[in-house]
Amino acid sequence: MSRQTYTRKEVIETEQAWLRQRRERLFGKEAAEKLDQTRFGIALSGGGIRSATINLGFLKTLQRFDLLRKADYLSTVSGGGYTGAFIQAATRAKGSYEAVFAPERIAHMRSHGDYLIPGQKPLAKLWNTLVLVVAYVVSWIMNLSNLAIVLGIGGVAGWLLWHILGMGDPAFWQNFHAHSQPVGEIGKWALLAVLVIHFVVNIVQVYGQGISRAFNQIETGLLIGALVAWLVILLASVERLYWPDTHTLLVAGALMAGLFLLGFATNANAIGFHRYYRNQLAKAFLFDTGEWASAKLWQLGRTEREADLLAPYPLINTCLNILSLGGDKKIKGSKGNDYFLLSPLHCGSKLSRYVRTADFPGYRELTLAAATTISAAAVNPGMGNYSNPILSMLLTLFNARLGFWLNNPLNDSKTYR
Questions:
Q1: Strands 337-342, 41-44: pairing kind
Q2: For 2-13, what is the mean pLDDT?
């Protein structure tokens, strides 16, 4: 598979070739030749189900004048993407706009406005609510397993170190206490130095310097190290009290290996609420579209059938949360987030560059429903410039995550996702 990246200019040129082919098939060669002079698009804003409903009526009205079919682009975000995804899937499945806007289809979407917890009857509503609660509890427990794995590996590793160094031997601690006073004095001055440097670099951060971010990463590492050290002492005390004759090294080694292997099987996208959100949106807006309800995003770029060209070219807008700001020169100077495009031909942003959707790992498997859901991920620990550390921690702890992890087009080990 190709790992080549593209500039925005190259992406637009590729789209223009696709749009000319579409125009020639639908409206003739003359319309294709006038693309540069007559190109136009439709943008659908966000706002959840209310936006989706308003946009549906808006598009239906435009189509009465054949403007929806004549549009070149359909740009959507969040709730506008619900309607946009419906147009993309339904036109390909039904082959005409008359069938897309049939009364029974509009009635279905009206009756599924409460798509997260559907149900017209009280018992059905209650059952779906219980299912949602159970699903949340299960995903929350799975999310906590990530924290348990990280702390468990650190704690068990420290436990092993405890025994390897003989820290359970009283002689070890006698020697330690003999040197604890000078070490303690050094620690006081080190703490004072950390506080002073922290004060200085946070002033520097106001002027846009990256050193503060790097220092905050060091602080985070020190805090995690202190927490792991505390767990080491706790585990060692419990072990000596309750299992004095256990083969500690063998048990601890096996436990650490098991936690390490379990970490490879953990998928952040699988334990969040993305899949539930995606499935509910698909049931409400991609119903009766056959295979197109689960179509891959890159498949919307096909041109074999006329039905493949009825809908305008989709531009699904999302927000890229940037997690590595300090050390990567490619994204230095960014403000924590960036516009990120998901489309049939290319995915990416000006900051990360663009990749071919059909070729790049992670994007080739992305479905229309998933892309729409990512665009509508209104709740997430990372909110770009509006991120709050305390709120982010709480949202992560309670697994309030609708966002999605995708491979980084830059393909840099520091910012792989």
A1: unpaired
A2: 87
Identify the CA nearest to 302 among candidates 91, 32, 38: 91
* Region for residue 399 given its phi and psi (left: phi exceeds 0; alpha: psi -120 to 50; beta: otherwise): left
Q: Name beta bridge partners: 133.
A: none
The residues, any chain, with a CB within 8 Å of residue 341's CB and separated by 6 or more, are 315, 316, 317, 318, 347, 348, 349, 354
Q: Round to whole Å and give the CA distance between 353 and 340.
A: 10
Of the candidates 370, 363, 319, the one whose C-alpha atom is nearest the C-alpha of residue 341 is 319
Q: Which residues contact 290 (CB under 8 A, 6 or more apart)?
A: 93
Joined together, the tokens standing for residue 381 give 């620990």
Per DSSP, 34 falls in state T
Buried b (16+ CB within 10 A) or exposed e, 203-231: eeeeeeebebeebbeeeeeeeeeeebeeb
List of residues 6+ apart from 415 with CB closer than 8 A = 322, 323, 324, 328, 331, 408
* Bridge-based pairing state of the strands 313-321 and 73-76: parallel
Concatenated DSSP letters of 261-313: HHHHT--HHHHSSHHHHHHHHHHHHSTT-GGGGG-BGGGGG--SSGGGGSSPE
User: What is d(CA 67, CA 86) in angstroms, rounded to the nearest whole number?
Assistant: 17
Q: Is the separation of the CB atoms in 75 and 42 below 8 Å?
A: yes
What confidence tens digit (pLDDT) does each residue in 87-137 have?
999 999 999 999 999 988 888 887 777 766 665 666 666 666 676 666 666
Residues facing residue 209 across a β-bridge: none
CA distance 406 to 388: 22
Q: What is the mean pLDDT of residues 229-244?
A: 58
- The alpha carbon of 110 is separated from its chain's Cα centroid by a whole number of angstroms, namely 29
Task: For the chain, give the number of residues.
Answer: 417
In this structure, which amino acid lies at residue 63? Q
Sequence ranges of the domains in the chain: 8-111+295-415, 140-269
Q: Answer whether 293's CB lies under 8 Å from 63's CB.
A: no
